[in-house]
Predict the 3D structure of the following.
Amino acid sequence: MKRQRGFASDNNSGVHPLILESIVNANTGHEVGYGDDKYTEKAIKNFKNLFGNDIEVFFVLTGTGANVLGINNMGHSFNSIICPATAHINIDECGAPEKFTGMKTISIPTDNGKITVKDIRPHMHGIGFEHHSQPGIISITQPTELGTLYTPDEIKNLADFAHSNHMYLQMDGARISNAVASLDMPIADFTKNCGVDVLSFGGTKNGMMYGEAVVFLNKEISQNFKYFRKQGMQLASKMRYIGAQFNAFFEDDLWLKNAAHSNKMAKLLHDAVKDIDEVTITQAVQANGVFAIIPNEVIEKLQNEYFFYTWDEGRSEVRWMCSFDTTQDDIIEFAQLLKKLIKEKK
């Protein structure tokens, strides 16, 4: 019988009680639909408090919607999107970026989920040649799908390279709260101030029920986005419930408290399993995920009690994600079971 909480995904956790309360509080009377309500207006102000007034913010329903629609506004169908091979837009969005935008995705293999200017240079060819898709967008994820973090200098280098080559830099921030908590700096210092043009700002993985934001840090790119959002079926009619969630999210820094907790739990999990025989940690634990190689024989037995995913079957690599509601007892009991199963295997 599976435990109440597992380590499969921070999407699997519930909704934070304060965010549920905000939804209930917004559920009174009538409000104008499609974003012309006081809750959405306040939420946009909250984003401007983080990034400054010279931005545009649009709320959407899903992370895929945020990525695809944000990228769509950054180029044309003849452009290409350069990203790490592990990127969500490359692996887990069912070809939606290519189908909706018409742009070609060029993926770059990487050991740690991060790409560099050096990685991108070999793909900068055929410029101005009509037989080749034209490099238009560099897309990175912060934290990466492997739980690693870009430094501000790394992001700035990518942005400077993009802009010097008439390209844009997009950031998938599905877990951006975890990056802010880990880097311990204002979010603008590693996004807007480093040259990121468009940010997908996630809430669902950090205690919200649903709802993401497309933040145009380069305001000029936002032109006509509202029409593409409608065409992309991401315009919520009762948008007040997204706005209300984000307002609770930012109230008293709940977003940072949730993220700091899930990051802390991941570090505790790392410390609890790193010295177990036949366990090899494969990535630096910088956010709320732990990647490890464990004996193949114990994976299914461990999954019988705790839901988690195998990341790379070929080398028995698994991914364990922590959430805002993960407890220290969850970590201790999980590590004890893993140690027990490995010992029994011998």
The longest helix spans residues 254-273. The radius of gyration is 21 Å.
